[in-house]
Amino acid sequence: MTDLFGQSTPRIRAMREHVLARPSAICLSRARIITEIYRQHPQEPVVLKRAMALRAILEQMPIYIDEGELIVGNQASAPRAAPIFLEYAVDWIIREIDEFDQRPGDRFHIAAEDKPELLRLCQEWQGKTLEARALAMMTPESRFLYDVGMIRAEGNITSGDGHIAADYATLLREGLAGVRARAQARLDRLDLAHFDDFRRQFFLRAVLMVCDAVVAFAHRYADLAEEMAADQSDSGRQTELHRIAEACRRVPEHPATSFYEAVQSVWFIQLVLQIESNGHSVSYGRLDQYLYPLYAADVAAGRINEEGATELLENLWIKTYTINKIRSYSHTRFSAGGPLYQNVTVGGQTPDGRDAANPLSVLVLRSVGRLRLTQPNLTVRYHRGTPDWFMRQAVEVVKLGFGMPAFNNDEVIIPAFIALGVTPEDARNYSAIGCVEVAVPGRWGYRCTGMSFLNLGKVLMTALNNGVEPLSGERIHPGVGKAFVDMDTFDEVYAAWAQTVRYFCRQAVIMDTCADYALELETPDVLCSALTQDCIVRGLTIKQGGAVYDFISDLQVGIANLGNSLAAIKKLVYEERLLTREELWQALRTDFEGHEGERIRQMLLNRAPKYGNDDDYVDALLVAAYNEYIDELDKYKNTRYGRGPIGGRYYAGTSSISANVPQGSAVGAMPDGRKARAPLAEGCSPSHGTDRKGPTAVYRSVGKLPSERIIGGVLLNQKLSPDSLATAEGVQTLITLMRTFFDDLHGFHVQYNVVSRETLLAAQRDPEHYRDLIVRVAGYSAFFHVLSPETQNDIIARTEHTL
User: Fewer CB within 10 Å: N-end or C-end of the chain?
Assistant: First the structure.
């Protein structure tokens, strides 16, 4: 493939096509092995049982080295095959097994002969899974809200945590041998006559077991490479296979001595973390920083050049794309396009505050850009000192139209972290994790964002109906004593909102606690904890409080609909009296049916202020209403509070991935003019078609949000006409616009789809001719043709701006 960054090598082009041609499929290997280990060792402490299971999986799972690969290691029996993680949840598999390849999007193939075996395995696990434990822990009230979909937490109790970046810098310095030595030394210092030390021994013993298992896993590839070399007639490939064997004998056990070894070492850990647990958003962190010393040394010594390093990076990205995960379909709708959110971050600042962009940063941009896959997720860190030359490199990738990179703003994130108690050096070393969420690699606990999803549209409509959700007719809140038609002032409307959203905020925290406690008890992740500071020092897993920092975020969906709805009620009903309360409620109740309903809908759409147009009337109202939720959230702590980490607190987040589509399908008509079951606004972006004054006005509205309190991510999607970036002047205009947004308006994040509406419509009509079309869905990119029609339509409906 040819683009602005040149052409990949024939090897990489062939590997890319090979992987893209592979269908998503189901692999039963992991499921068989872990079931047998749990059968054999029911009496073992769970953390040791998890370590035994991972060791057995790494010993017994099928491995392969594909044609041309220089970086090796596979998650399952074939590229893009998804393992089954039975210990997390099985009921959804039993329900949906005959529908995996029938889904509207994100289909998976399962061999007919594998279905009976998978069903038998699932039945053996019923009642013993993470999901079963978490559901049993829920209060009756929480379980009711979970079942009716008011607060979505399915992903937290049917899969692992993820949302983390391991300590790759330390791995490259000391290898797993160093990690193991620290664990052994800590174990040797324990006094088993003390209960706390007695408990610590099991985790530390598990770390020793897992470090040995990962080293043995790498050695399996060394053996395979040597076997293949012996049968290889091509001398060039034979040399490569010997080089692979040599690298796998050394890393990740020992410190990397070259750029090649470093890339292989990082990949082994990135891979095994996702064999250990099915949590997503396992990210590379600041790869351009921790790999750069080895790259620079190799370049100086003449051992590698730019093209050789780029080929290794592109091999790494292809391997990253091979990772796959199957979710229940209800969960899939929240993550349309099958993203794994494996983020790599470039740029930003060094821990001492200097600009961090370096030659390897450019190679990462170049390699991701010319490969154009959906993984890894690419993020550029911006600060006032980011040079224009680096911004131009980043925008050249944006121009390619596959939704990357996203941009995060140091000028907001670093001060916000320091205010939370993060040291300045650590704060400057943050990276993107998954979508737009941020954390300090190797020092932060799980789920810096991504706990439960709260549907703000549903909360508002329930508040207006005295606790009864209008679409379903279910009472999901005790009510505020009055329905909307009985509220004489807007202050009463606002008070109903405030009381209702605070109630659901508290209920979400209770649900999170159930999920967190179940995860702690049932699925401790040993390798991930071993590569997170200070788990070994404390002798605790991440979930027990082992991380240096531990802050988490719930996610709020539909903030634009909330602000627009409150503004319409206040202005049109209570101030201008263009509508009576009864007229508006009747229109909402009937989904704006008939001529009169449509007249009212048009009034709501066109006569009321809309967020995204730099209108203080609606923007201030939205900020006040959102702060009601954030103020309530500030009261609560997570399950690690007081157990070791700095923090143990919550903050807000709008990184709602594709949840706006399924969450919108559960909400009736709203006072902003949105019809029943239509998607809610995504992230912190304006509602589709309502941002009519251009991107600058959008930035000004978004800049009014309390971003320093929304550290879970202030996700802004923008769609640009491709013509806007067709010239050097257009590129510079976008850079200037971003600098203004980040420097002056304190924006947290922005990302761009550079694709026309006409192209998207053509791709929807004729997907076979647009199989390489990638779009930005939310905090991630996905192939357009694999998305469900409802998600495709949501992307098509976004406002297309020009510069």
Answer: N
Q: How many CB atoms lie within 10 A of CB 331?
A: 17
100 and 84 Cβ atoms separated by less than 8 Å: no
Angle, in degrees to the nearest 10, between helices 292-300 and 306-322 = 150
DSSP state letters, 711-744: TT----EEEE-GGGGSSHHHHHHHHHHHHIIIII
- Specify the pLDDT at position 337: 86
> Which pair of structure tokens corresponds to residue 28?
């039963």
SS3 377: strand
Cα-to-chain-centroid distance, residue 405: 15
Q: What are the distances in angstroms from CA 222 to CA 12, 229, 743?
A: 22, 10, 50
The residues that bridge with 109 in the sheet, in sequence order, are 25
Asked whether the CA dihedral 49, 54, 60, 62 is positive or negative, the reply is: positive
**Residue keyed to tokens 């680096």:** 390
Q: Which residues are catalytic?
A: 435, 437
Q: Read off the pLDDT band of 131 (50, 70, 90).
A: very high
Q: How far apart are CA 425 and CA 441, in angstroms?
A: 12
Residue 536 has pLDDT above 60, yes or no: yes
Torsion of CA 175, 426, 524, 48, to 10 degrees: 30
For residue 146, report the phi and psi dihedrals to the nearest 5 degrees: -65, -45
Average pLDDT, stretch 558-578?
Answer: 98
Looking up tokens 């010393």 gives 293
pLDDT in the model for residue 568: 98
Q: How far apart are CA 432 and CA 420, in angstroms?
A: 17
In whole angstroms, what is the distance from residue 56 CA to residue 412 CA?
Answer: 45
Helices 46-60 & 195-230 angle (0-180, nearest 10): 0
800-801 β-sheet, strand order: 343-347, 377-382, 406-409, 749-754, 717-720, 800-801
Whether 625 and 562 have beta carbons less than 8 Å apart is answered as yes
Compute the chain's Rg from CA coordinates.
Answer: 26
Return mean pLDDT, the chain: 96
Mean pLDDT of all residues in 460-489: 96
CA 158 to chain centre: 16
Bridge pairing between strands 437-439 and 549-553: unpaired
Q: Residue 156: pLDDT above 80?
A: yes
Here the tokens at position 736 are 């200037």
Confidence grade of residue 489 (pLDDT, cut at 50, 70, 90):
very high
In terms of residues, how long is the chain? Answer: 803
Angle between the N-to-C axes of helices 195-230 and 168-188, in degrees from 0 to 180, rounded to the nearest 10: 130
In 253-389 the beta strands, taken as DSSP E runs, fall at: 282-283, 343-347, 377-382
| pLDDT tens digits, one per residue of 409-435 | 999 999 999 999 999 999 999 999 998
- Residue 779 has what pLDDT? 82
- Residue 4, pLDDT score: 60
Helical ranges in 76-167 per DSSP H: 91-96, 114-125, 130-137, 140-147, 154-157
Burial degree of 353 (CB within 10 A; 0-12, 13-18, 19+): middle
For the record, the structure tokens of 639 come out as: 């399950």
Residue 561 — φ and ψ, nearest 5°?
-65, -35
Question: Does residue 338 register a pLDDT over 90?
Answer: no
Rounded CA-CA distance 139/514 in Å is: 9
pLDDT exceeds 90 at position 333: no
How many CB atoms are located within 10 Å of the residue 61 CB? 20
Please state the separation of Cα 145 from the chain's center in Å.
24
Cα(225)–Cα(630) distance, rounded to whole angstroms?
54
- From 453, 501, 494, select the one nearest 477 (Cα to Cα): 501
